[in-house]
Amino acid sequence: MLKKSSDCTEILVGKAASMDGSTIVARNEDGYGPVNPIKFVVHPATDQAGKAFTSAVTGVTVPLPDHAYRYTGTPQADQSDGQYEEAGINEFNVGMSATETTATNARVLGYDPLVDDGVNEEAMVTLVLPYIKSAKEGAQRLGALLEKYGTGESNSIAFNDNEEIWYLETAGGHHWAAMRLPEDCYAIAPNQTLMQEVDLNDTDNFLVATDLVNFVEKYHLNPTPGHFNFREIFGTHGEDDAYYNTPRTWYGQKLFNPEITDQDPTDQDMPFARKPAKKIAIEDVEFFLSSHYNGTKYDPFGTYASGSADDQKKYRPIAMDRNQCSSILQIRNDVPADHAAIQWIAMGFFAYAPYVPFFTNINDTPEDYKNTTTAVDVENVYWLNKTLSVIIEPHFHEYVEAVNAFREGCQSYARQRVAATDAAMTGDATNFLTASNAETAGEVSKRTHQLFDDLVKHGLLLSKTAWEKGQNL
């Protein structure tokens, strides 16, 4: 079966590590190619007694609870091969991001192979997010589904509520473990099995598959007796990890812990969770998810540091042509619960696209975020931003100042809109926030169309066939 998965980058920030006390789960959804149109939707709460979900990918049928809570999602526009809802927040202010593609080593897969008819990325948000009231419940529900139905992929999945972040990694077809991120830490996940020491007796901070310990003991899978290091038991340490994955962790830890100078981009032993040198803001998360080794010799755009052509192509960047949709799931603790949850969304190539804050206690999403088509149409946000990347990349150094000014202006506007909406909350919260989101998105879309207009007109002056009147007469 061809796996259609998210080849992504994720960052988690505990509430004591964030600048405003929010929990933050954020991830770039990247495809295996540059095109996979995405839309942003909200599903209403639904009574559904006796209904079941059948996957378009694997054919697995899963009975559903009688009631589904309202939740947001970012599914693909063409759902003929599945929904892939990817990221959202439900009515209980619980966020879920699924998935980060990982890998299980061949030794483990020899005893617990992946399955063809299980619960894969395509179904995870749909089967879990509408039915949970806390981040920990999310890990428990997904873990139970994995044990019962199995999975055909190796993935990591993150959940957050206003207090906790839970991070789950699958292992083989039916096994998994989850950890509660220490609240004063951040963690970066770049397509690897990353969880380290698991305390099997500490159920407040760790959850595991019911037979995980027996499975490991039966097949002699633990290379470090006396410890239960999930990464060492189940993960991989190949060249693809060293050059495709770990450099992204290296860059993130370089940003958030600049005092650490002894790590190499290919270091396989970087810790998963770290305490940041200073508190992390939404803007810091956005910068990381939009980055491309900025300021180092590995930047493929070679903006501020001189690297050779080989250096610039050495490591897989975070912002790249395969970017589709980025969601920052923020659950705040300094405002009432009815407007505490915000899903910041960027679509397209994230080095160019702005993040837009959407309150998630809503009953609709803006038209140009939900009307995404499979054909190119700049009247929806996905294709507008994807088309901008086609214009910008060939002339990156000529356009970057204007693009950065645009993005910074949008970010300041976004902050203004969140503050204004918080201050003006009145009446029915759901209707008020739906209208506020529409106003915010409308202004950012207006600014994006103006940038598009400016860059197209400027680009027309750059033709190699330009000929001035009177030239060579």
Rounded mean pLDDT is: 95
Assign the structural class, choosing from mainly alpha, mainly beta, alpha/beta, alpha+beta, or little secondary structure: alpha+beta
The rounded Rg comes to 22 Å
Annotation, overall tally of beta strands: 19
Are there runs of 5+ residues with pLDDT below 50, and where?
none
Distance, first to last CA: 65 Å
Annotation field: number of helices: 12
Largest sheet: 7 strands, antiparallel
Proportion of strand residues: 15-25%
Oligomeric state as shown: single chain
State the helicity in percent bands: 25-40%
Overall 3D form: globular
Q: What spatial order of strands do you see in the largest sheet?
A: 16-14-1-2-17-18-19
Describe the structure in your own words.
By secondary structure, the chain is of the alpha+beta class. The protein is built from twelve helices and 19 strands. The strands form five sheets. The protein has a seven-stranded antiparallel beta sheet. A six-stranded antiparallel beta sheet has the order 9-10-11-12-13-15, covered by helices on one side. A two-stranded antiparallel ribbon has the order 3-8. Strand 5 and strand 6 (61-63) form a beta hairpin. Helix 10 (381-392) runs parallel beside helix 12. The longest helix has 31 residues, at 429-459. The termini are far apart.
